[in-house]
User: What shape does this take?
Amino acid sequence: MVWRGWSIARRLFVANLILVVLLAAGLATVMVYDAGSRTYEQTSARMLAVATAIADSPAVKAAAQEPNPSATLQPYAKSVMADAHVDFVTMMSPAGVRWTHPDPQEIGKQYVGSIAQAQAGHTYFETTAGTLGPSVRVIVPIQDSDGTVLGMVAAGTTVDNVQVLVASRLPAVAALAAALLIAGSLAAWALGRYLKRVTFGWGPEELGQLFTYYESVLHSVREGLVLVDTRGAMVLYNDHAALLLGINAPPTGPASAAQPSLDSLGLPDSLRELLKSGRTATDEVHLAGDRLLVVSQRPALSPGKNAPAGTVATLRDHTELTALASNLSSTQTLVEALRSQTHEHANRLHAIISLIELDRPREALNFATAEHRDTVQLGGKFVEALDEPFLAALLLGKRAQAAELGVTLELTASGDLPPNTLDPRELVTLLGNLVDNAMDAAARCAQSPTVWVDLLVADGELTITVADNGPGLPTTDLDILGRIGTTDKSSVVPGGRGYGMALIRRATAALGGTITGENDGGALMTAIFPLDALEAHSSSTNGTP
Assistant: This one.
């Protein structure tokens, strides 16, 4: 339970500290053992050198053949012990009877130890207990030129003295172990502080539980959520974001080894630019296929840091809301056109009544006939050319609305449009908003405000061109014009002018067409629709096979 309450940093520090302690203890043990082995080897080698030098001495060989070797060899042995710093030098007869010994009382007694190997003419090493205690010794035979063993020499040092030599190396071993322990502890402490900083002092169980909660929330919300790092890689996105963006790859998480880049996911250009830029955005409208997405983006800041680690973007699908706004916009467009037309007809009707009251029936009849003839001629031209009464009704109403604004609306149409090709709602939304924008722009022009509308059916395509002689587009990038907030009009509610370009682009995408904008003495908007795409959309809308 104590371990479960610790953070990752503390666990790592304690585990690393235990590991370093064990490693230091093991290393110290190995070094002590190695130092002892080396000391015993060096001591044995030194004893061998001393004993061999004594055994090879001509004086020793000569003394070994005298009746009383001790008289000559005992002083020599003491001198060698003092000079060579050995604890004993014992020379003996081939039978093992001592000729010399550090304790004169032991002379003449039997040597304590193994002598069989030396009696056979071989050198022998051993560690055994003798009269001076446990000692490391070597026994070398004293041989004449014929190889006959004349005696034996044993040189050695006590084990206590050897252990003193080993102990002299322990401070170096302890210092190295302590340095290793301190270095390992400092490394564990530094790594622990780093982990505590990046994990905010949470334990692995808490982090795992938190990740489980976040993962559940992430995939249960009905808004798209996208996390992008500073390298432009999509670190995380939920199921709804994948649906809205048309991403086929499965949603990724922090544990995923592969984090796809934005360029590899086939996102719409405007949305990819927003996510890669990392800029702050609030309720920007972006077109993704035939979906209209409202995107907000904020930098992802780590606690206590000012530098962003990436960005977090939320995506909301406003396609259905925009469809309702489109229907509302279409209705408002038709109502506004009818209102303008009704207002104009009321004025003309008052003029006709006044002429009749002034007893000028001929002028009244000519005035009414001319108005009717112009209306029938204009409507007949569109109906005859495009066979689409909705267009004729819309444009006739827009002509009356333009007259109220003091704008000249010039309408042209050519080509034959097959019947049941257009979706009236989408077309009214598209053309109505294009004409409204053009009239508003032209009305701000001081001299001869004019709007031109041309509908052309040719080469299997319907081309709608709307131009004005107003101030022109602020930018020809329709992605920017399609974002809420770029309009200079006060109304930015669904169906208002702030949504105009967004509605135009959505309707264009829904009809399978393309739209472009340019400046040519004013704004020039051109929408092109393949007739087969229009027919397919109309069939699906009407429910026909």
